[in-house]
Design goal:
244 residues; alpha+beta; globular; 5-stranded antiparallel sheet; 3-stranded antiparallel sheet; 8 helices
Length: 244
Amino acid sequence: MAGMMFYKNIDLLDPKKYGKSKIERISDYSFTAEANSLPVTGNEFIEASKEYIIAFIKNDEGEFFPMVVLGVQDQENLYVTKEGKWNAKYIPGYVRRYPFASMAAKEEDKFNICIDESYPGLGTEKGQPLFQEDGTPAPLMEDVIKILQDYHGQVKHTSDFCQRLADNGLLESKEFQAEVSTKDGDKKFQLSGMYVVNEQKLLGLDDNIALDFFKKGEFAWIYSHLISLSNFPRVLDRYFAEKK
């Protein structure tokens, strides 16, 4: 999976250190302004496909993971306004969990809870407490733990899904290209380094392999991904709306 985007100073959430800390809910998403793509898990595909392009990215280790495309240029998020508001109905889970994160622990299927201690809403004066006086999680933290447990599990399922797509030769390189005429002349756009599912190869899968994808609920993921590719013109619309 992609690295920890926009997290600046990740720290283990130790009650000995953060026992008296409080946190305010996120109201300003400006911290995502330079993220032109973000990881997304398979269970998010249906909602995400209504507004974003969902494509697969290959890391240096040759592993694939899905991302939502947020901009057509580097360090550009077209889904966040200058005032820091998220300008879309669906906010990816990667953003919603911030400033918390889960990090792998030594024990399999376990994880440590971490926090970006540079988050401006973290302090001791305002917001909701992270821990009770006895060091146990406060109600807010109980909710965070549930969210992170679910997200951690979804990341694992999605990684396994991506591996099976790759193992069955279903992912192919894809470039998104467009040439748009403007009053300043023609402008070319290109998104590269992305992979998509080849539908013809999907339809040619062995019946048992196809049934496995189907029974795991992943055919809905695949077709949501394929439908999302038609959002490229809508992303360009956002780009030109920003330039007005």
